[in-house]
Amino acid sequence: MADTIESEIYVSPFDSIDLINPLELLSKWVDEAKELGLPEPDAMNLATVDKDGNPHNRMVLMRHINDSEIGFFTNLESSKANDIFNGSRTSSTLWWPQLSRQVRLEGMAQEMSRKMVDSYFAQRPRNSKIAAWSSKQSSQLESMDKLHQVFDGFSQKFAADTIPTPPFWGGFIINVEKIEYWLGREFRLHDRIVLSKHGDAWAKHRIYP
Ligand SMILES: Cc1cc2nc3c(=O)[nH]c(=O)nc-3n(C[C@H](O)[C@H](O)[C@H](O)COP(=O)(O)O)c2cc1C
């Protein structure tokens, strides 16, 4: 029969998720995307809400992950940073179309320690460091010429020096409270599992596609 599903042979990877480390599967999926050479394997969409309740989203790179947190780096005076400092919760999505996999995460963000920020900034390419100094991210810019002038100015200023982390540049750690793993399957019989934190404990339940 052409359109029947042999569901008994499907073994879901979600059945073996360890609730002690609910982000382990995310870490594994990012690693697999990297191994396959997929573009921007740790790019995630990050949504925040401004003080008037308007949602905003943009891509950032997920540069930190452990058993309960993810993190990213950004300008601390940007729109997203303002939203977070004003108490916005965050919602993030990663998607690897070639693998038919999606992960959604929710949680509160807090500013990353300067120690962590400095150690990440130190290993960035020199021109990326200068670009960080040159950008008043999300503020109005009169022209691209102006940006190049500012970049050249900082290049000269730091010509002979180690480039320190700009005080306005940093990162955020999201304390993850809810995760949804999504695995695309034939006939849209997708496999979805939600992991949610209750106090210190995690619970999981499956949801319809
Ligand atoms: C693939 C991709 C990755 C990005 N990664 C970052 C990032 O890690 N940090 C960052 O501040 N902006 C990153 N950006 C730029 C943001 O999407 C955004 O334009 C910028 O942070 C300003 O956002 P805001 O005005 O909402 O604060 C990335 C953009 C793309 C397309």
Short description:
This protein has 209 residues and is an alpha+beta fold. It has helices at residues 24-35, 79-85, 114-122, 126-134, 144-157; strands at 43-49, 55-61, 64-65, 69-75, 89-96, 101-111, 169-183, 191-198, 201-207.
At the fold tier of CATH, the topology name is Pnp Oxidase, Chain A
- What is the typical, i.e. mean, pLDDT? 95
Q: What is the terminal-to-terminal distance?
A: 23 Å
Low-confidence stretches: none
| Approximate helicity band | 10-25%
CATH class value? Mainly Beta
CATH homologous superfamily title: Electron Transport, Fmn-binding Protein, Chain A
CATH architecture: Roll
Structural class: alpha+beta
Chart the SSEs and their pairings:
Elements: H1 24-35, E1 43-49, E2 55-61, E3 64-65, E4 69-75, H2 79-85, E5 89-96, E6 101-111, H3 114-122, H4 126-134, H5 144-157, E7 169-183, E8 191-198, E9 201-207
The structure holds flavin mononucleotide (FMN).
Question: What are its keywords?
Answer:
209 residues; alpha+beta; Pnp Oxidase, Chain A; 9 strands; elongated
Describe the 3D structure.
This protein is of the alpha+beta class and 209 residues long. The chain has one domain (9-124, 168-207): Roll (Pnp Oxidase, Chain A). It is 24% helix and 34% strand. The chain has 5 helices and 9 strands; from the N terminus they run H-E-E-E-E-H-E-E-H-H-H-E-E-E. The chain has helices at residues 24-35, 79-85, 114-122, 126-134, 144-157; strands at residues 43-49, 55-61, 64-65, 69-75, 89-96, 101-111, 169-183, 191-198, 201-207. Strands 1, 2, 3, 4, 5, 6, 7, 8 and 9 form a 9-stranded antiparallel sheet that branches. Strand 8 and strand 9 form a beta hairpin. Helix 4 crosses helix 5 (144-157). The longest helix has 14 residues, at 144-157. The model has no long low-confidence stretch (mean pLDDT 95). Flavin mononucleotide (FMN) binds at residues 40, 43, 56, 58-61, 72-75, 78-80, 137-138.
